[in-house]
Design a protein that fits this description.
- By secondary structure, the protein is α/β, with parallel strands linked by helices.
- It has a single domain, classed as TIM Barrel, CATH 3.20.20.
- Helix content is about 40%, strand content about 15%.
- The protein has 12 helices and 11 strands.
- Strand 4, helix 7 and strand 5 form a beta-alpha-beta unit.
- Helix 6 runs parallel beside helix 7 and helix 7 packs parallel to helix 8.
- The longest helix has 13 residues.
- The chain is globular and about 55 Å long.
- It starts with a helix and ends with a helix.
Length: about 270
């Protein structure tokens, strides 16, 4: 084994986000799945959804951030409020004062990232940076709160991930964006690379109805020391199949189903 290859493996092992649990189980936007039967009680990406996930025993949560007009990072998936309030207004056009007055589905605040990190001090967050405007505010918040060990930076955009990492004062976990992930998967299938220079890959199981992952490919990824997390998986047979393939984690909506399966398999 070459020195460079060994160094990559050591680099990947340093991230507590990835090593703190035997299996990385991530409720997608918190435990919002329960809102289907509880009239938005646990609305996605709200403190109630995060609290419910913690109550169920989850230590990791997947979430998203956008930035306000005055560059405050807020936890919300969509760029506008239309789906959650009916108002077709972009978050980037609202100040933090404006946002503090908004109630989603009648009762939920849009959480500030900084307050969320403080309110859930033992929770690991997989944070999807949804836009370029949030890059510097996100990095500033991570630096201010010194939450380097319990965050993984994600985005579909590789350049965005790279820019955030360059702004953060210490080493931080990150996943590959879309183009880098595609390049890695093609190269692994062709056998032209022996290592992956990212600590984590976050991939879909299917793309446009076509299965993009199989046991052989997952084995090749894991052999490099890179962790593989698959999103967003909600069918019981797919959860079981991917766990049997050897994935390191799953992002799911139905987190209770995932918990039951992990308990049964001795991975909880």
């Amino acid at each position: 084994m070459s020195k460079i290859y060994r160094n990559f493996k050591l680099f990947k092992k340093q991230f507590h986000f990835l090593s703190s649990r035997k299996f990385i189980a991530l409720p997608h936007r918190g435990a919002h799945f329960f809102s289907k039967n509880n009239s938005n009680k646990y609305l996605e990406n709200t403190h109630s959804a995060f609290s419910k996930a913690r109550e169920l025993g989850f230590t990791h949560i997947e979430t998203d951030v956008h930035a306000s007009k005055d560059s405050i990072p807020y936890i919300i998936h969509d760029p506008t409020l239309k789906r959650l309030t009916g108002d077709d207004i972009a978050l980037k056009d609202l100040t933090s004062v404006d946002i503090e007055k908004i109630r989603l589905k009648g009762s939920h605040l849009i959480p500030k990232l900084e307050e969320t990190l403080e309110e859930f001090p033992s929770t690991y967050f997989n944070i999807d940076a949804k836009c370029w405007k949030v890059v510097e505010p996100l990095a500033d918040t991570i630096n201010k709160t010194e939450t380097f060990d319990r965050i993984c930076i994600a985005s579909f955009n590789d350049k965005r991930i790279s820019h955030i990492r360059n702004l953060i004062k210490e080493s931080i976990c990150f996943s590959a964006g879309t183009l880098k992930s595609l390049s890695i998967m093609i190269s692994l299938r062709l056998g032209v690379i022996s290592d992956i220079e990212v600590p984590c890959l976050e991939l879909p199981f299917f793309y446009k109805g076509i299965k993009v992952l199989n046991k052989s490919l997952i084995k090749k990824i894991r052999k490099t020391g890179t962790k593989i997390i698959v999103w967003v998986i909600n069918k019981e047979n797919h959860i079981n199949e991917l766990i049997d393939y050897g994935v390191d984690g799953l992002i799911v909506d139905d987190c209770l189903l995932l918990k039951k399966i992990l308990i049964k398999k001795g991975l909880w």
